[in-house]
Design goal:
single chain, about 190 residues, seven-stranded antiparallel β-sheet, mainly beta
């Protein structure tokens, strides 16, 4: 399914493998708009797959985060001013689970991840103007990371995202990407 995607900021080094997608990040790549730092960056790597309305997407992300702001995960995007990225980001000396929601300006929510940050599964559901982000260490129990309003649209772009604002060379593997209708599960259903 990832073969259907189109790159925003195609990395110099990437390729499809038997089990998914391998990417090596470019130098000084990032997604951010204004808040706290005062700058706007839209240079991160994102392989966007078009949806037909509301959806659920899942992906497994494997990477060895080392430098400040190394990050990889999943992205939801309408345009440069309306997007969400979620996944693992290296901050304060450790790999943290986090998300950034941008509706004009970016916010940032982050916290420790109890599982192995080098191997995390992410799920993103958009339904009726709400985005729900979940994470899982085993693909069976999906804890809530974020619940937020997001603009309704007839189509969205969703897919793997990675960037390294402070360096180049983070190698990331994205596997088990799935895209389908919204799951419709109760908020506290962790399955």
């Amino acid at each position: 399914m990832l073969e259907r995607g189109n790159w925003l900021n195609e990395p110099a080094e990437w390729g499809f493998e038997a089990d998914g997608l391998r990417v090596v990040t470019g130098r000084a790549t990032d997604f951010w708009r204004e808040t706290h730092y005062g700058f706007t960056r839209d240079s991160g790597h994102f392989l966007g797959i078009a949806t037909e309305g509301d959806f659920t997407a899942e992906v497994q992300v494997r990477a060895g985060y080392q430098a400040l702001y190394d990050q990889a995960g999943i992205m939801l995007r309408l345009d440069e001013g309306h997007w969400l990225k979620a996944g693992i980001e290296f901050s304060d000396g450790q790999a943290m689970l986090g998300s950034v929601l941008t509706v004009g300006r970016s916010d940032w929510a982050t916290g420790p991840y109890a599982g192995d940050p080098g191997d995390v599964r992410l799920r993103l559901t958009v339904a009726e103007g709400v985005v729900r982000v979940q994470a899982s260490a085993d693909g069976r129990r999906w804890g809530l990371v974020r619940l937020a309003p997001f603009p309704k649209a007839a189509s969205y772009l969703v897919g793997p995202m990675c960037c390294t604002p402070e360096r180049a060379g983070l190698e990331v593997r994205f596997t088990d990407f799935r895209l389908g209708p919204p799951l419709g599960r109760d908020l506290h259903d962790l399955a």
